[in-house]
Amino acid sequence: MLLAWWARSLLVGLAYVLVGAFFAFLVAFVWTIAAQVNDAPSVLPEPIAVFLSQVYLHAESGPLNADAIIGAGMLLIGLTTIRQVLRSRAPAAQSEEEGPTKAQVNPRQEPGG
Predict the structure, then answer these.
(1) Share of the chain above pLDDT 90, in %
(2) How far is CA 37 from CA 41, 45, 51, in A?
(3) DSSP code of 35?
(4) What is the count of structural domains for the chain?
């Protein structure tokens, strides 16, 4: 997961967001938009619904649903990476109040003299 952090790339962050969101929300996708309810067809086209169902059935999530936990971690790391890249590219805002310049401040000058 540190690949996205070290890469500091918008493309890597976006890939982490997409893959992480897929695995984090896979259960929700399968049970809401890919399932057939009361013999009504699923919301998704059949090839996509079958693909999601196969991934869900054959994923090794275990009793703690580890694939969703890792997907959520990837999603958060990806979002953090994207935020970091966008913040580093933003121009620094200048404050309206400017302090004294280096030539105006002389720490060795004695007071009153």
Answers:
(1) 19
(2) 7, 14, 17
(3) S
(4) 1
- CA–CA dist 6, 40 (Å, integer): 47
* Dihedral angle over CA of 68, 72, 73, 74, nearest 10: 100
In a domain, 104, yes or no: no
Compute φ and ψ for 104, nearest 5 degrees: -80, -25
Expressed as residue numbers, the domain containing 40 is 2-89
Inside any domain, residue 99: no
> 7: which DSSP letter?
H
The pair of three-digit structure tokens given for residue 77, joined into one six-digit string = 């790391």
Mean pLDDT of the chain: 79
Give, to the nearest 10 degrees, the angle between helix 10-24 and helix 66-89: 150
Q: Is pLDDT at 14 greater than 80 in this prediction?
A: yes
Asked if residue 47 is part of any domain, the answer here is yes
pTM of the entire predicted model = 0.67
